[in-house]
Amino acid sequence: MPASSTSSIDEKMSATLPHSPENGTLPPTSESPNTTPIEEVKPVFQPSRGFLFAFGAICIVTLAAAIDATSLSIALPIITAKLHGTAIEAFWSGTSFLVTSAVFQPVIAGLSHVFGRKEVGVTVILSTLSI
């Protein structure tokens, strides 16, 4: 392109666009003279009741998993000694416990998707308490 056509395009573009300072902001208009820039507005996080319940449930499940792993590492040597087992048998019983737990999690999640979380949760709690 020749230089004359490039400069004429630039002149046309600058004539149609509003002029702005070097920092890229638009000049204040008569419609909103006292508005604050977006950078100064800080959103305030207001968690809802449902969010707090879900967050609390996640915290309780995480705590239960931590207590479960801790109690397993403390109880296995005692159980092995009472049953006169070897260290390798204790290792495999702990591993089988954790694998069983990992296998049942997606199964229970699928059941709760089909039947509903409340029904499956109540069933799991009642079956645990009945043992």
Task: Report on this structure.
By secondary structure, the protein is mostly helical. It has a domain at 49-130. Helices cover 69% and strands 0% of the residues. The chain has 4 helices and no strands. Helix 2 (49-82) runs antiparallel to helix 3 and helix 3 (87-115) runs antiparallel to helix 4 (117-130). The longest helix has 34 residues, at 49-82. The protein is elongated, with a radius of gyration of 33 Å. The protein starts with a helix and ends with a helix. The mean pLDDT is 78.
Query: What's the story with the biggest beta sheet?
Result: none
Number of strands: 0
Mean pLDDT: 78
Overall structural class, as computed from helix and strand content, comes to mainly alpha
Ends apart, CA distance between termini: 85 Å
Question: H/E order of the elements?
Answer: HHHH
Cα shape: elongated
**Can you tell me the residue ranges where pLDDT is under 50 for at least 5 consecutive residues?**
none
Strand content: under 5%
Give the number of helices: 4
Radius of gyration: 33 Å
Percent of residues in helices comes to: 55-70%
